[in-house]
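Re-run with default settings, no changes from the original entry. Doing this only to confirm the output is reproducible before filing.
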Amino acid sequence: MTVTINDLRAWKTEGRRWVMLTAYDHPTAQILDRAGVPVLLVGDSVANNVLGYPDTLPVTMDEMLHHTKAVARGVENAMVVGDMPFMSFQASIEDGVRNAGRLIKEGGAHAVKIEGPQLDLIHKLVDVGIPVMAHVGLTPQSVHSLGGYKVQGRGEAAHKVVDQALALEKAGAFSIVLEAMPSDLGADITGSLQIPTIGIGAGPGADAQVLVVNDLLGFNEKIPRFAKAYGDLRGAMTKATQAFIRDVAAGSFPDEKHSYS
């Protein structure tokens, strides 16, 4: 790792904008790292983007460790952040410390991400030397209590989100993800904090932006409003597969070039 939490704080001071992307496997992590992505998040979104679950709730610690290890083996420069899955920290601070420690020690992550205002846990993790990325606004692990995937912080509810962000900074978080909130709220929070903010559906005012890599590459059939497909990987894979099928059916593959004498 060459990118550190100190770099991210310095970039905020300098006004330098940067990106974070999710990564779930070794080759993707290697490509993104070499492309210059400074922070890779092994998100619990692996659940519904890779493992076929309907949402992020079912993914387990063992599954998160499996994917975190793969990503960590693929990077040379990027910071790797391991996402704490649902019920890996909610039951007790002890559970949270133990599982965060596993993502660092076994998974090879450099930091962990925790959803919601888990102030006591974050304070404890920072005390034992584990950097924490916080997450406010739409927190997908709380989708049922939020009543669905809805924009957070509109109207009077904005004060609550701001207060949470300020409290998380005070607890010791080194950065904070702002998800699915009005653009002006994202900008207000960013201006109120010393730590960098990372927006996803929070407008252009955040210090950095994050996307799910499957959305970025056009791998998913549907993407949320706040995402943008910069490629068509699904289309490219479909075309390549269909070309292979045609060549085999026609007897043109394998040809002499792809055979041994």
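The two ends are 46 Å apart (CA to CA). The chain has a mean pLDDT of 97.
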